[in-house]
Amino acid sequence: MSVQNPSRLLDLAGKHLLRDDALAFSVLEDLPTELFPPLFMETFHGRHIKTLKAMVQAWPFVRLPLGGLIDMPHVGPLQAVLEALDGLLAQKVRSRRCKLRLLDLRNTGQNFWSMWSGASSYECSSSGMAPVAEQGSVTKQHLAPLKIFIDLCLKKRTLDNFLTYLLRWVEQRKASVHLCCKKLKISAMPMDNIVKVLSMVQLDCIQEVQVNWIWHLSTLATFASLLGKMSNLQRLRLSPIHLSAFTEQEQDHLAQITSQFLRLGHLQDLHLDYPSFLEGCLDQMLRCLKSPLDNLSITNCWLTESDLTHLSQSPNISQLKGLDLSGVTMTDFNPGLLRVLLEKVEATLQELDLDLCGIKDSQLEAILPALSHCSRLRYLSLCENFLSMAVMEKLLRHTTGLPCLTQEHYPAPQESYRSQGVLLEARLAQVRAQLLEILRDLGCPRVIWISPSPCLHCGENICYHLEPIIYSCTAPA
């Protein structure tokens, strides 16, 4: 007699149960744990609402990763699950099977569903997915609030139906339900709506905030009061902040913003793009940092020599792995300022981006000794700076001993252009040949990208599609 595949038998059993809701209800308490996920998927996609609700209330795992199944714009499936949770929250005595503590609406959990629906159905998953040992009898459970995890992307001026329904449901059950968000992205939504949404969220759960919208400094000051409550924030990215004139009121706004950094003790990555309000005031923000940063990006803005001095003196940049100052003009800065900054971070720095900084030969030469000591450096970009062929050669010689450096992006040397700044393809070809000879002379395998400005093919000021210059010390046959 042939023995059928066990997973096939489970599949057939599940489909049989779905034909009879009453039968499904009666067997959930004794249903094998490995049958729950595949049966739940069948129930969910087949819209067997009654059985779906019953399965939520008997879910034998700590976490239900619903986001991997649900189509977010549609309220229907979410409504059914939330109604089931209402029944669960109302129960003083729960099913002995139910271990549910966390509803995950993020786009995760695909591995969980594929594992239980595939050949490895009998294995238990990790990180909160494994079933908890069942108790021998029905017991009264005093549980912490149910947690709902969601990644928020506030990119419309008004809330969509899905988020509106969820927020209203959470608001009515604040004592028993916590809405948690680890990643928050904001673009076009008005501040009033942002405040309304975040009033429903456990702000200390947020670990990453990204703002991709032009805000006035006053708007950022309003948001800063919420930012200061995100005590576990690790990454902060802010897009252009508009500053019309630095009035006394704007100075007050800046103080409101920077003071909130005192409350962000876990901040690791800080990215500020077009922060016009920082010119001459960088020290005010640096003084409020509570812990060393891993990555700092201040781009496309004006800074003063004093700002750069304060940056190099800050104790919270001494462990930087990534530093991006692209678009910060340093043409008239003292060449020694950048050198002091690099000396401060040379032991830990892995990525350095100084594109479009107006760096001249004298300034680059000043930092070469410090650059040559950045033993962990793996990415270096100096595109759109004013460098001669002679200084480019010095750069290549000083960095040839860096063991981790694998990505190098440099500007086309000034010899590639006419006096009016017009790029000449024939000269660029000669320069590339000369650079290849330098790499051969140095004798180490290396790949470098040379970016003319603007590119003759795409018109971009910085392009990465041109063929790199490659030297590999392959022994002759």
What is the strand and helix layout of this fold?
Elements: H1 6-18, H2 21-27, H3 36-45, H4 49-56, E1 63-64, H5 76-90, E2 102-104, H6 110-117, E3 146-149, E4 152-154, H7 161-171, E5 177-180, E6 183-186, H8 191-198, E7 208-211, E8 215-216, H9 217-227, E9 235-238, E10 241-242, H10 248-259, E11 269-273, H11 282-286, E12 295-299, H12 305-313, E13 322-324, H13 335-345, E14 351-353, H14 361-372, E15 379-381, H15 389-399, E16 407-411, H16 425-442, E17 446-451, E18 469-471
Helix pairs in contact: 1-3, 3-4, 4-5, 9-10, 12-13, 13-14, 14-15, 15-16
Brief descriptors of the model:
alpha/beta; 12-stranded mixed sheet; 477 residues; elongated; single chain
Describe the overall structure.
This protein is of the alpha/beta class and 477 residues long. 35% of the residues lie in helices and 14% in strands. It contains 16 helices and 18 strands. The protein has helices at residues 6-18, 21-27, 36-45, 49-56, 76-90, 110-117, 161-171, 191-198, 217-227, 248-259, 282-286, 305-313, 335-345, 361-372, 389-399, 425-442; strands spanning 63-64, 102-104, 146-149, 152-154, 177-180, 183-186, 208-211, 215-216, 235-238, 241-242, 269-273, 295-299, 322-324, 351-353, 379-381, 407-411, 446-451, 469-471. The strands form 3 sheets. It has a 12-stranded mixed β-sheet with strand order 4-6-7-9-11-12-13-14-15-16-17-18, covered by helices on one side. Helix 5 (76-90) links the parallel strand 1 (63-64) and strand 2. Helix 1 (6-18) crosses helix 3, helix 4 crosses helix 5 and helix 12 (305-313) runs parallel beside helix 13. The longest helix has 18 residues, at 425-442. The termini are far apart.
